[in-house]
């Protein structure tokens, strides 16, 4: 398969995952809004029949945040959105700069893969122990499992960048 | 190897990696994990890592970050800055230097729906710079005002930097927001005073023009009040204890989106594409927090932060001297390091020290909140200080053709207001802390 197609599909995947994460954030936002409305109107006449706070909204917000955060990682890696300090390397040659950025991408890849791998192992452990969230009884292993794809895709993108594959063009400041 | 050598090695490795352009999250994670491994061994490290991602990401407090970032994106895309600036301009723009004062006021109002200084500086510059140019304000005053005004984005709650501080210091976001409120207002007032004095002392930088008609003023206010309503509901909800910060952020985000859609300032396509910058910034912050957590854990097992805290506690100097020293050190560091990086790198070592100091007899919680506000002020000054004032670059990028030196010159008078405010808050923590007592 030509490298261009792989790059293009990785880019598309990263964007799709970011939008998916956006859905999770929208879910968190709507859930919180509905929860406030339910809570604040439950003592009013008429409303009291159907208005109530959402049970376990805190738990759902936590799960949604973790999943959204992980799904945003590939896009951030793709667009080189991670924060770096360039003060000490302002005057070095472009060539050296690119080599250092490849090193940076390699260490990002290492981080993603180590964290992804351990989270997967943790997921298996928790599946075995049957740990659930306190109020809703939501199986935590599903949450763990849902954070892994984003981390691993980000790892693949970082690895490609470390290998010198150009994605989404050079950063804006060059 | 003793623990000091180990901690030095971990921190040294991290700093070398950071200096070599390695993303801060990865530098902290790799150096921290290696250090942790060398202390507790392989199996304990691998066991710790199994829970790290979930423990860090699945956090109720962190949920405010994507929400506030998204709200800021919506507010920028919908052009709320334009409505706010127009309203402020109609009210005070006719005075000498009034358009600059209006820009500061609009920055403050925009800062109340946006938690980022870069976004505030960028979106306000786009509307206020052309207007000041048209009215023959000097480049120096116009660009300086906007670079400084942008920092109100993080001073006035919501503030992304303050949320990150809250997470690192394990303090209540609502209380930190409350504590930042009065200092934020003081900052805006201070800047307005600086403009008033500046245009009086050096004429030629600003012009005077006719007052807006009553009809124009009413129209402008009519456009701005729904935006004000959003942040009033949000902040009253959070401060009054009706909402958690996450719920406040959710209400604000939904409100901003709806207002933008109803007024036709946003369409679905723009709204959806606002997501990508918010997603990027969220992932960036989450990743550095992940790295910082690994680093903190490694430093904590080395017990070096606690030792440093003890050592500083045993020194015979006044606690305020210690804090003052930290703040000066930070101001110096912001010249070389990004503000976020600075916080992540030094807070783990400094927070235990601060917890051990006797400051005005404040409780541990109030000390942490007060120091957070002081830190926020320093970060804010760092955003406009040479040589790498981020906001200065943002404004320079929009004000094409204005040299950086000219913008820095414009900023100088405002730094005096910052200095006065920092000294005031330093000696009178009550100015900021009194608001915390009202938070449930």
Secondary-structure map with pairings?
The complex is a heterodimer of chains A (174) and B (440).
Chain A lengths: L2 H39 L15 H22 L15 H36 L10 H23 L12
Helix pairs in contact in A: 1-2, 1-4, 2-4, 3-4
Chain B lengths: L2 H17 L4 H17 L1 H16 L6 H14 L2 H13 L5 H14 L5 H18 L4 H12 L1 H4 L4 H10 L3 H29 L12 H26 L5 H18 L5 H6 L1 H28 L1 H11 L4 H15 L5 H17 L8 H19 L7 H9 L5 H24 L2 H4 L7
Helix pairs in contact in B: 1-2, 1-15, 2-3, 2-15, 3-15, 4-13, 4-15, 5-6, 5-12, 6-7, 6-8, 6-11, 7-8, 7-20, 8-20, 8-21, 10-18, 10-19, 11-19, 11-21, 12-13, 15-18, 16-18, 17-19, 18-19, 19-21
Largest β sheet strand count, sense and barrel closure of chain A: none
Q: State the helical fraction of chain A.
A: 55-70%
Per DSSP, the total helix count of chain A is: 4
> What fraction strand of chain B?
under 5%
Shape of chain B: globular
**Termini Cα gap of chain B:** 48 Å
Q: What oligomeric assembly is this protein in?
A: heterodimer
Helix content of chain B: over 70%
* Element order of chain A: H for helix, E for strand: HHHH
Overall SS class of chain A: mainly alpha
Judging from the principal axes of the Cα atoms, what is the shape of chain A? Answer: elongated
Beta strands of chain A, count = 0
Q: How would you describe the overall organization of this protein?
A:
The complex is a heterodimer of chains A (174) and B (440). By secondary structure, chain A is mainly α. Chain A is 69% helix and 0% strand. Chain A is built from four helices and no strands. Chain A has helices at 3-41, 57-78, 94-129, 140-162. The longest helix of chain A is centred in the first third of the chain and has 39 residues, at 3-41. Mean pLDDT of chain A is 87; it is low at 170-174. With 440 residues, chain B is mainly α. In chain B, 78% of the residues lie in helices and 0% in strands. Chain B has 22 helices and no strands. The longest helix of chain B has 29 residues, at 173-201. Chain B starts with a helix and ends in a 7-residue tail after the last helix. The relative contact order of chain B is 0.15. The model of chain B has no long low-confidence stretch (mean pLDDT 90). Chains A and B meet through helix 1, helix 2, helix 3 and helix 4 of A and helix 1, helix 2, helix 3, helix 4 and helix 13 of B.
